[in-house]
């Protein structure tokens, strides 16, 4: 199905986790759920691996005492790690497809969007409009990220369960929620693009170097490729593996790759301060 602005009929072929909240949309290829055995053990395995890595980066970031934006980056990786925990829960099918399952998927969606928002906030922190590590800075990053996550989760729950009059009525096979569509698709894209632009300006104008930008560009390309696997490749992979995995498997790996290079980029532009602290 073609992508229509504000509508989720694309869930027929796309492998986005959020698609699970729209139970009336019938995927052209169904990924097997966890039951008594193993069908998506590969999918669960990659979720566990990425969660372990993100938790490790969380600890490593916390220990870089002299790095610029350490606390703010710690918050971003905290959002990312908690998102991974909910991804494991939802990928394993512990909550099923009932009301509880839809709420858990909605929380995951909210945290994912909140992660992109905190990424953008980290991009702004580097310009030191407010001194990094201070209470206003950390509260601003965490608080705004939490608000974005809560608002996204609310609209997701509302769209799936029709809790309020805000939920838009549409054909069951092509549900519509303009607010959720913007929050889930447009906001992360805008946050990532703005972060990229801000970091290019920061590195070229303030730091006077280009080498770290390679890692940043690799991270951005990996993010874009993840969306390609979600939207264009998910259904062929699902059909080719008889429903064992879909495009979300590769998309999660690519998102993990993006996180790795993003961390390495941040580490590279703060390593001078870290080395100075370590040799003091």
From TrEMBL:
Q: Which Pfam families match?
A: Chs7
Identify the InterPro entries for this entry.
Chs7
Q: Which GO terms describe its biological process?
A: protein folding
Q: Which UniProt keywords apply?
A: Membrane, Transmembrane, Transmembrane helix
Q: Does ATP-binding appear among the keywords?
A: no
Residues that span the membrane, as ranges: 73-95, 107-127, 139-161, 181-206, 213-232, 244-266
Q: Which GO terms describe its cellular component?
A: endoplasmic reticulum membrane
What's one GO MF term for it?
A: unfolded protein binding
Does the entry feature the keyword Membrane, yes or no? Answer: yes
List the protein's name: Chitin synthase III catalytic subunit-domain-containing protein
